Amino acid sequence: MTKIIYLDSPENFSFRPTIYSHGWSELLPFEIDEETWKLSYVFTDNNGKNPTYATISDENGRLAIEVENSELNEDFQAKILNETKHILRLDEDLNKFYKLIEKQKNLRWIADANAGRLVRSPTVFEDLIKTICTTNCSWSLTKNMTRNLVEKLGISTKNGKKSFPTAEAMANQTPEFYRDEIRAGYRSPYFHELAEAVAIKKINPESWLKSDLPTNELKKEMKKIKGVGDYAAENLLKLVGRYDGLALDSWLRAQFYKKHNKETVCEDTQITEFYSKFGSWRGLAIWCDMTERWFKVEKS
DNA sequence: GCGTCCAGGTCTACC
DNA sequence: GGTAGACCTGGACGC
Fold this sequence. Notes:
The protein is 45% helix and 10% strand. It is of the alpha+beta class.
């Protein structure tokens, strides 16, 4: 039995550009159906239990969340609604960004498409683990590692879908487990150490969402975690709503060379200078600029 | 089949 | 603070 709960979407929000904003929607427990344009996820209750598969779709301007659990209590239903808002960034105000790019002929499409909301996981912990999975490897390997984490450590729904593992579940595994079962390679001791630190509350990644620290200080905090360098920290900063950093990686650099530098390699300083006019929004500006063709494909 | 390169980088030791 | 070398994995590529 399923139950549908509804959520009003704000002005300047479009569902497709949001769920298609970057690769996160391809990483389990997220799944994206590009034919029906639905995004699914496996939610858990406040105790990290009762895994529940839900599919989010746009229904004439409001969001329909179809939940495969007809006996949701009020707390769990509220949690699913709040986490959906967080995943899709419904409370994020991009008007200042849209205003900033208003006179940029090549970027005006972002505001026209209501793009710029980068989909994210319900918890910063999940985004942190996934970000480490993106470092120094191909996208297919990122997907493999994430799939292994979910399939081997997640809790299963009645229909066999699995949740993202909790820090506690990850802390209970050894570095050898991550190396042999998750195929995480040199990242294996990092995962064990990080999960343990979060489980015993030595580190609280969720606090980054409302941190009063200046961005450069928060970035330093993030980089204290093994496996998190400049790229990973700046990617995480974007996911907690700060766009000061470009989060340059080999893919983003290659896209820039192709689009703005006649397919010629250049220094990072040149890329930084190119987007400096966008100030604290430069990280979002480069990401939207480099992924423009994704949206053109979608429209065609 | 085998070796090499490299992909959505980071860490450590050393200077 | 800057830099060289090492680090897991697995797909692509050349031979």
